[in-house]
Amino acid sequence: MRKQGLAVIVACLCMGLPNLSYAQNASHTAGSHTHESMQMPLHYRIADIDPRFNLDSQQVLELTQQAAKIWEQETGQKNFVYDPQAEFTINFVYDERQQHSKNRVENLDQLNQQQQQWENQRLQLQQVKDEIQKMTALIASKQTQLTSQFQQYNADVQRFNQLRSSSKQMADQLAQRQQELQLQSNSLKQEIAQHKQKTQQLNQAIQSLNQNNKQLVLSANQFNKNFQPRLFHKGHFNGKQIYIYEFTSKEDLRLTLAHELGHALGLEHTDDPTSIMYPVIQKQNLQKFELTKADQELVRAMN
User: Fold this and answer.
1) Average per-residue pLDDT in the chain?
2) CA distances to 33, 46, 132 from 75, in Å
3) Boundaries of each Peptidase metallopeptidase domain copy (predicted)?
């Protein structure tokens, strides 16, 4: 038997996505804030809410009360009271800032979904690749064993011919061995053919996946180009009203409201990027809603 050549080449799985611009620097109009405290307790009401924010008055009121409570806990006083007849208002103004933020979030979600789909496919193909590599080793082992068996058979046939033996039993045994070896050889050839076909299918799938990865990289680069981090104003307190212009989540809105209510208390900005009263929303923990040491020091200095 001539040893059947087994050449299985599996394509490489690759992925390289650039870092996406997740964070948007959002300021609280540091240069034009009013820092004079209002007469406490401050009565407020929820005024205009542009319907494009997809928020109702009750949702805004609940978030505002949560934002107000964090200052009340620190000062020990009820500083903010909801009053439907109050002159002081909280207004939601929808403009290009919120639209830009909405577009960024939607595009980012789409990219994340595509990236997750790609990763799931990669893991599936990696599993198939591992199975094919195991089968490659198994087939190579079978080839080695079968080649050894053929070599032993050929040596036995040569010895039989040299002895010029007329033993019908030995001749029948050799013929039976030849038949069995040929069946094994044919079976192994079919197994190799099927294995090569699976390998070709895997390579095609990997090539398609790698092509999708290139498209993902292009999409990510385009995202970073379209949504470069920039400074824009989320909210503003002018001494008579609070205006909210942009937020990315309810947690983000709660922190923004707390920041503007802090100004209503007369608090200025801090130098701690994790604090509520820092002028840029970027490094605060939106889920762990609490005052930092810097925020607390502002309140103590006010008293």
Assistant:
1) 87
2) 22, 23, 67
3) 189-301
